[in-house]
Every structure is written in structure tokens, then in C-alpha cells.
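New to this. Please check this fold:
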Amino acid sequence: MILVCGEALVDLFAELHAPDGPILRVAVGGSPLNVAVALARLETPVGFFGGLSVDCFGSLLADAMQREGIDTSLVKRSARPTPLVLVSPDRHGNPSYTFYAQETAVQDVGLVDVSGPLPSSVQAIALGSYALAVEPVGTSLLSLAEREAGRRVIALDCNLRPALVGSLASWRTRIEQLARCASIFKLSDEDFASGWGEAAQPEEQATGWLKQGVKLVVMTHGARGATCWHHSGRVGVPAFPTPIVDTVGAGDSFQAALLARLTQKGLLSSSALTSLDATSIADAMRYASLAAGMTCARRGADPPRRREMDASLGEAPL
């Protein structure tokens, strides 16, 4: 099982020019929850760990997880409210976000909540987004990653949200701490430019992360595809060509599909990741690019299912 850790929240999609007047469409969201849903749809065993409110939106999120087949046995229910995000896509489908996320259930995770042993079924831990930078949950997840790094694969996805993380210098310090625990480190070129500055060089940074112990450094470039750095070399793949409805959840689908493909091929372990060759890396990257492209062709974070992926690739189900 892959255990996805972080935030679950409710997205409110603003449709300001609907025929009958402005409306808000409610959808489950949060980058880690999107990753968990995408993994479940790709038939990869997955669980979720994070704070989940007992309010009506928290119940909506819990019900959605159960429908998708996500293990919720490690979820912490909280009396704090569910965080809300107002999502407003522009005419090109690129979303802007307004967060209502202070003192919510997401932050209601402390060191005591990560102190117990994880189930033996947990093969990998996926971390990402703003929960890494707010307290006390951020420190708690760092503690979990540091404790488990020698036992399980740690997959880190930056997914920077500048409006939520406070000081970028502090956020970058936290990400660098987590990178020292990570086997897989994924970020977008926008994350990189915002977090490390326009003058920073991806090649130089990726080489440094590999020297620290990361096995795969993956950077997505939107319509320009994605690049992976590994000790065996650098691999680039193009974006999957598709009409763009919006890009909500595309990066989350990419991360989930990357992990799912490595799982399908028996490669989601520290030793296997160390020994990857360019062919295996390109295969996993193309699979991830396909999932991201299929998500972009739909409204909101609606990742594809395994059968859709198999049909697109012409593969027989395993």
C-alpha cells in the first residue's frame, strides 16, 4: 500500500458566467487526496493519513475516500473545520486559488499522531503540498519521513502554494529537509522558479539532490513535457497531446501515475529505483504524462481509471 499524507479539503469552483447566474460547484480536493484518488483509480492499493473534520464537508470527504476504495483507517477526525479553496480557472483553463485554510482540521496533526508504527503493508509514503509547511502537521510529517526513510520509499511532491506557506525561505528549508529523506522528488518548473529563484539551475539542483540520496528527480513542464534525472542519466518525455479543459489536478495525476507504474512493474523499492535504466524511467514517465493529459481534458481533478489508461496504451490488464 502507498500511504498518502497531507491535506484533504473542499474545492469550490466558481462559475461566474453560468446562464442562470453565478454558481459554486463543490468538489473534493487537496493535492494529497487527489493523488490518493488517482492511485485508487489506477488500482494501486492506497491509504490516506491526515486530519479530517467531523463537519459536513469532512463527512463528504470521508465518503468520497471510501467510494474510491482508499483505506481511511489512519485518518484522524478533528473538531476543527474543513479547509475550503475557491478555484477560478481563467479562459485558458489555468486555475487561480483563494484559500480559507487557517486553523483547520489539516493542521490538527501532531507528533503524537505519527508516533505509532505503520502497518506492515505500507510500501511507500507520498507527501506533498501545503501541509508540509504549516504547523504542527509539517513538523509531524517531517518526523514521519525521517523515521521511515530507511524502511520505505518516500515520494515527495512540492506543489508549492505561496499564499499558504508563509516565508519561502522557511518553506525551502523544509523541502530540503524532506528531500534528504526522499527516494522520489517531484516538482514543477513553476515550483522550482518560485521556490529557488529564477536564477537557479534545474540541472545543478537535481544533481545535488541525487548526491544527497534521491533516486529520481522529476520536473514537470506543463505542455512541454517532463524531465527526470537519475544516476543513469537524464530522460525527457513530451506532454500527452490533448485539448485542455483545465489543468486542475494534472500534477497530482502525474505523481500518482508515476508511482502506480513503478508499482505495476515491481520497481517501487529503494534498490529497484537505484538500478533503474533509461527505458524503465521513460516508460513510467510516459505513463504519468498520459494520466496528466487525460486529467487536463476533463473539468476539475478527475484522474483516469486503469482501464482507460490500458485502452489508450493498448495494454492488456495485468
The chain has one domain: 2-13+24-312. The CA atoms of residues 277 and 301 lie 31 Å apart. Residues 278-296 form the longest helix (19 residues).
